[in-house]
Design goal:
Chemotaxis protein chec, 362 residues, 24% strand, 5-stranded parallel sheet, Rossmann fold, 17 strands, Molybdopterin biosynthesis moea protein, domain 2, 13 helices
């Protein structure tokens, strides 16, 4: 049975992997949380060791993410750590770990423990945490029903694990090692960008994926994908990748009963990747390292329904859906006006803090 080992200490991870390899174990060692999560996104991982050499925070965070991925629900997770307090052990089991192994045990003892875990993984094909720790009570159905469609999407596994989903999809399409978590390029350094939009008519939601690349990264990816002489096809590469990311996210959302319709990629200003002109209520910007290239990714979600907001909640780019009048009936802002920072300051100065303004998402 192939073993996945997550260990942020690369030297310690190498030592552990060498010992396990000498014991006849087939394993993969990953020091990066994103790469580890991507392994669970790509397919089943029967058994994984998550090593914590100082604090268990990163291992616990990864365990929670793994349990939110379809393939991760049936994995057997072992927390390998030393000197844990009772509270940390309880947090580990609540995060999704099935068993705790002592860091620093002899290789013989570890191998014996792994044989037992492998039998459990083979026999049950599912976590055994229920036998080791209390199972939290499920959230009341009423609480889930009270969430708006927007809130439900932001809590969906597909949304929360989108960076890892995109990482795995890019690695498969480009046949490159893809890393996750590097700082996105600065707006001025980006040369080209593409945006693709998914829409949910039933819930009046819009989800946008924007990809941006520097001239060097775009040209390098184009040559990698299309061959020498294709340096000018960076936009085509970003268009292909945005299509793939859209399909990946759409499929994952559909598996959680969120139906979105996909659009077509379109060129946008490069700065839209990190400073979008559209106002998104929920958004995330991250980077993918693809070999020698880097890709900036912006993921944004917004409601297409009109909203009633107080002056303090207004943001640049919002569009007024109705004329805004002051207490004496004088016009402050006309319907259809896109709000600027100065306009928002004017409204806040002339309206009561609890006044309600209707704005559109456009």
């Amino acid at each position: 049975m192939k073993l996945l080992v997550f260990d942020r200490d690369e030297s310690g991870g190498r030592e552990l992997s060498l010992g396990l390899a000498r014991a006849g174990r087939e394993l993969t060692v990953v020091p990066d949380e994103g790469a580890a999560l991507a392994a669970f996104v790509r397919g089943p991982v029967p058994l994984a060791l998550l090593v914590a050499r100082d604090t268990p925070d990163a291992a616990l965070r990864l365990a929670r993410q793994v349990r939110g991925v379809p393939h991760g629900k049936a994995s057997l997770l072992a927390l390998v750590a030393a000197g844990l307090t009772e509270r940390q052990l309880n947090e580990g089991y609540e995060a999704g770990f099935d068993v705790h192994l002592q860091l620093g045990m002899s290789m013989g003892a570890l191998s014996a423990s792994l044989r037992g875990l492998e039998r459990l993984a083979s026999a049950h094909g599912a976590p055994v945490a229920a036998a080791l720790a209390p199972v939290a009570a499920p959230a009341p159905v009423a609480a889930a029903l009270s969430l708006s469609p927007f809130e439900q999407v932001t809590r969906a596994t597909a949304w929360r694990t989108a960076p890892a989903l995109f990482q795995a999809a890019a690695a498969k399409f480009l046949t490159l090692d893809v890393g996750l978590g590097a700082s996105p390029p600065t707006p001025g350094s980006l040369a080209t960008a593409q945006r693709i939009v998914l829409s949910s008519a039933a819930h009046e939601l819009e989800l946008a994926i924007t990809l941006g690349a520097t001239q060097k990264s775009g040209a390098g990816l184009a040559v990698h994908l299309f061959g020498p002489g294709s340096e000018g096809l960076a936009a085509d590469v970003l268009g292909e990748l945005s299509n793939i990311f859209m399909g990946t996210l759409k499929t994952s959302l559909s598996a959680e009963s969120f139906a979105f319709t996909g659009g077509l990629p379109a060129a946008v200003a490069a700065e839209e990747t990190v400073r979008p002109s559209i106002t998104f209520k929920q958004q995330e910007t991250f980077a993918l390292a693809l070999g020698d290239a880097s890709l900036a990714v912006h993921l944004g979600l917004r409601s297409r329904a009109n909203q009633l907001l107080a002056p303090g909640e207004l943001r640049e780019g919002m569009v007024v859906a109705r004329d805004v009048l002051n207490a004496r009936g004088l016009m402050l802002i006309n319907k259809g006006t896109r709000l600027s920072a100065n306009m928002i300051d004017k409204l806040r100065a002339n309206l009561a803090p609890k006044a309600q303004l209707e704005v559109t998402a456009s």
